[in-house]
Amino acid sequence: MSARIHPLADVQSAAIGADTQVWQFTVVLGGARIGAACNINAHCFIENDVVLGDQVTVKCGNYLWDGLRVGDRAFIGPNVTFTNDRMPRSKRYPDAFPQTVVEAGASIGGGATILPGVTIGAGAMVGAGAVVTRSVPPLAVVAGNPARILRYLTPDA
């Protein structure tokens, strides 16, 4: 089955996997690559240099900036803030944006802030509202500002 694009979405990319749904008021720029069976909710923005794996869920109100890589089965809760420039200045852009990685099966709770260049490890969970300032190991549960490891999950959780 082909991708289902809501008529009120602005999808410029042809690299959208089968069975992916893109909801209304979402913008996907031409260079973005989105895998199969993803669910991109309403009011999202996906920049050119963004890659989403298969079965990724992106809840409402997310802006996915250049340099973001998201693995298969990852979950991005509502209103997560990704940043891609550690020293932003108006009209001054870096030669390349740092790569931020959300590995397979990781989940990010609503309202979390993810600084540029970090990796959220496979199967990790980021608590709602957490501020992730450094990489999160696989299967770690982190929360707080700055995010700190609370515990580890078992691989089948």
Automatic annotation (TrEMBL):
Origin organism is Duganella alba
Keywords carried by this UniProt record: Acyltransferase, Repeat, Transferase
Indicate the family of this protein: Belongs to the transferase hexapeptide repeat family.
Q: Which PROSITE patterns match?
A: HEXAPEP_TRANSFERASES (PS00101)
Q: What is the lineage of its organism?
A: Bacteria, Pseudomonadati, Pseudomonadota, Betaproteobacteria, Burkholderiales
- What protein does this entry describe? N-acetyltransferase
Do the record's keywords include Acyltransferase?
A: yes
Whether Acyltransferase counts among this entry's keywords is yes
Superkingdom is: Bacteria
Give the InterPro entries listed for this entry: Hexapep (IPR001451), Hexapep_transf_CS (IPR018357), Trans_hexapeptide_repeat (IPR050179), Trimer_LpxA-like_sf (IPR011004)
Give one GO term, molecular function aspect: acyltransferase activity
